[in-house]
Amino acid sequence: MISLKGKKILFLSVSFFKYEKAIAKRLTEIGAEVDFYDERPSNSNFSKGIIRLNKSFYHLKINRYYNRILNEIQGKKYDYFFLIKGEAIPTFFLDKIRENNPEMEMIYYNFDPLSEYPNLISHLKYFDKKFTFEYSDSVKYNIGFRPLFYLDEYKNLSQDHQSLEYDVVFIGSAHTDRYVVGEKIKSVVDKLNLKSYFYYYAMGRVAFRLKKIIDKSLKQFDITKVSFDKLNHHQIIDFYRKTKSVLDINKPFQNGLTIRTFEALASGRKLITTNSDIKNYPFYCQDNILVIDRDNIELDREFFETHFRELDKEILYKMSLDSFIECLFDRNQDDYWKSFRKN
């Protein structure tokens, strides 16, 4: 693992289920001094919606927030500026921190397709190093390709198979066609007499009802099956501890692998996924991973009757948060991750 002892990092990130806090904590553990800020001035459903639809309507609040950050860090010198996603960040802030720290290395990471957030493309020019989890974006925009990661808490499950209650567990946000596909899969699971648990999460009751009106893919979503309580990592780990396999349903326009992919495999749990691009990754193995067609659901009962094949230690490390940090702050891993691609 690299050492960042004595390095000063200004770290801004979108809030994503407290993974940003885990990254900041790990950077601190390996020696860095980290000043962390949420890149949004607020994480209310209203604020997120406005920023996503048209942040110009919110520019006064955004500008006040970023000017406050500039005041708080005034006079500080940083070795790195690290940004994850950057939906809200204004260009004047990027200009100012570069002006104040001309020798600072600026690092960018995105875990969403740029086609979904095209306004982020204009920010790429500010960064010395930029990475994406989406292979096609790495090629199109000539940026580094780095998949997501798992937290070490999940790896500790790999030998725990004593109390399996489920054959399939799904835990995920309620978006796009996820409910429609999930319910189809559940129907097939039930016909095979397999035990399952499905947990659909939404940010807020009012916001979800409004989204159902706008987004036709959510119209079929039974609101009684949606939870508005976010599961923490300990709760998710507890479900993984009790299951044979984890179901992953990617967005239909997304090929980058979700963080659930890495958590499930690091946990020693089999993975069922609608993302066929997983075949282009070093950990793909038919014994552990079942790729299904979201439009033609078929499950093989035999998949559930065999044991998980243990992952190679080098591959498992490359999937880790430590490896993710090494890639972004030290040496990119394009040669490694792209070498497994078949197309």
Task: Summarize the helices and strands and which ones pair or pack.
Blueprint: E1 8-13, H1 19-29, E2 33-38, H2 45-54, H3 59-72, E3 80-84, H4 91-100, E4 105-110, E5 129-132, H5 135-140, E6 144-145, H6 152-155, E7 166-173, H7 178-191, E8 196-201, H8 205-214, E9 226-227, H9 233-241, E10 243-248, H10 259-266, E11 270-273, E12 289-291, H11 301-305, H12 313-318, H13 321-329, H14 334-338
Parallel strand pairs: 1-2, 1-3, 3-4, 4-5, 5-6, 7-8, 7-10, 8-9, 10-11, 11-12
Tell me briefly what this model is:
The chain is of the alpha/beta class and about 350 residues long. Helix content is about 35%, strand content about 15%.
Describe the structure.
- The chain is an alpha/beta fold.
- It folds into 2 domains: 8-149 and 321-338, 3-Layer(aba) Sandwich (Rossmann fold); 152-318, Rossmann fold (3-Layer(aba) Sandwich).
- It is built from 14 helices and 12 strands.
- The protein has helices at residues 19-29, 45-54, 59-72, 91-100, 135-140, 152-155, 178-191, 205-214, 233-241, 259-266, 301-305, 313-318, 321-329, 334-338, and strands at residues 8-13, 33-38, 80-84, 105-110, 129-132, 144-145, 166-173, 196-201, 226-227, 243-248, 270-273, 289-291.
- The strands form 2 sheets. Strands 2-1-3-4-5-6 form a 6-stranded parallel β-sheet.
- The radius of gyration is 21 Å and the shape is globular.
